[in-house]
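Hmm, what's this shape?
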Amino acid sequence: MSEDSIPLLKLLQRIPSFFHISEIHLKRLAEGAICRSFSAGQIIFLEGEGSAGLWGLEKGHVKLYKLSPEGQEYILRFVGPGEAFNELAALDNAPNAASAMAVTDVEAWVISGEVFNRALQEDHELSLAVIQGLVGRMRALTVQVEDLALRTVTARLARFLVEQIEDPALAHPAVTRALIANYLATTPESISRSLRALEIAGAISFNRHRIVITDLEVLRQQAQL
């Protein structure tokens, strides 16, 4: 296991929904978890398939995405180490609401919906924490929809770059311009033009292929925050 790997119990303790959960209940969740490994580009689960359970990412990066009828990919979220995903399907045991693919090599733990729901019934604090976590996710999706409807590509990209500071999953080198374009519902060419605009504004610079934030305040202004 790599130096970046996170032991399961510590991984669960890092997930926001589990911050205040007793170690006894966390250990019960851990006992019902199965470790899975995926190579970069490998599908973890598909939208519409039977519930794949609750996932906790130990190592690597994952994208959650949906495909249009024409095959156009739209990325809902990037997931990094210490984060959970697929909560909805784990809660209601309905089909997966989105697809998940490994962006890099991945090690993750999966907890079945049955084990997860049993833990919710036994620990009211866990139930409340999960509800609060889902509310936070819904707020984030609301902001995402607002961005798509009301902000230019440059403003959306600027917000994305601001979020990199707080979310290491977004800053990973594997998150390419093409993936960013799919996340922001635009094209790689538009991303390149917007990056150039942000560079001219003095918000960012480039160190080879790496984007460097040079003036956070200007970047926030470009993001209309």
